[in-house]
Amino acid sequence: MAKILIIEDNQIMADNFTLILKGFFDIECINSAEGAMDIINKNLPDIIILDVLLNGHSAFALLNELQSYQDTANIPIIICSNLANHLDMKTIRHYNVHKVIDKSIITPDILINSCREIGANFK
């Protein structure tokens, strides 16, 4: 089963994402970018679902750190954010971002299908 790391500081959103995905994927959650690298180094995920607006370190600091290591640079990223309309895919694709999903219109099907699509591309 593919492993997904959800990095989301809104506990309700994190819980909802977990409930939606847990029947299809092995899920782990963390609420900050600071602790994410420890989890990633212990158990390399197949996909990361990342919120942009996090407490503490920004998601972009984490994306930069992921790109600096050979074993983490190729982990596919799905950004789920209320800022989705403000992100330029040409710019963030460098960080191995494969999809940007607007939290305001996300549905369970969108989330599941996005993870399946990205996971299938990397098997």
Beta fraction: 15-25%
Number of strands: 5
* The first-level CATH class name: Alpha Beta
**First CA to last CA: what distance?**
11 Å
Question: Mind telling me which CATH architecture this is?
Answer: 3-Layer(aba) Sandwich
**Taking all residues together, what is the mean pLDDT?**
90
Number of domains: 1
Q: Count up the helices.
A: 5
Low-confidence stretches: none
Lateral strand order in the biggest sheet = 2-1-3-4-5
Output the radius of gyration: 13 Å
Order of helices and strands: EHEHEHEHEH
The named CATH superfamily: Response regulator
* Structural class by secondary-structure content: alpha/beta
Largest sheet: 5 strands, parallel
Shape: globular
CATH topology descriptor: Rossmann fold
Tell me roughly what share of residues is in helical segments.
25-40%
Please supply descriptive tags for the structure shown above:
5 strands, single chain, 20% strand, Rossmann fold, 123 residues, 5-stranded parallel sheet
